[in-house]
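Title: Comparing notes on inverse folding

I've been comparing how different people in this forum approach sequence design from structure. To keep things fair, I'm posting one structure and asking everyone to reply with a full sequence. Here's the target:
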């Protein structure tokens, strides 16, 4: 997803910063769902970063790795180390609870998207 910041008239740099922050908040709300959607098979951090990048959903490593640890602590992900390769990798999988959580988030997202699209079609600000 590539986001552009709309042109602000005048000398209102604070307004540009506010809009940039709002865009970050909007994106942040969907990052967990995007990551969870990739768990058809076991994944490790770098493979997730690549898969997201290929889908034009860039996510910083500094955001992903703490998210993976948090999701594991919450019981949404399980992990195991693969030490058979030259470089050990920590692979993550969705737990049974994680599968339920993902489906709940996905359902809620689709409903919010549908409701928001209906609301935005009524938009009279343009």
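Reply #1:
Here's my take.
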């Amino acid at each position: 997803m590539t986001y552009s910041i709309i042109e602000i008239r005048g000398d209102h740099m604070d307004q540009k910063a506010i809009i940039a922050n709002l865009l970050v908040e909007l994106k942040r709300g969907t990052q967990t769902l995007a990551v969870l959607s990739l768990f058809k098979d076991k994944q490790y951090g770098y493979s997730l970063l690549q898969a997201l990048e290929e889908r034009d959903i860039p996510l910083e490593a500094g955001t992903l790795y703490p998210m993976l640890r948090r999701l594991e602590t919450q019981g949404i992900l399980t992990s195991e180390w693969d030490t058979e390769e030259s470089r050990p990798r920590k692979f993550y999988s969705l737990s049974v609870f994680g599968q339920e959580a993902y489906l709940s988030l996905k359902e809620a997202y689709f409903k919010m998207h549908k409701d928001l699209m209906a609301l935005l079609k009524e938009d009279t600000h343009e």
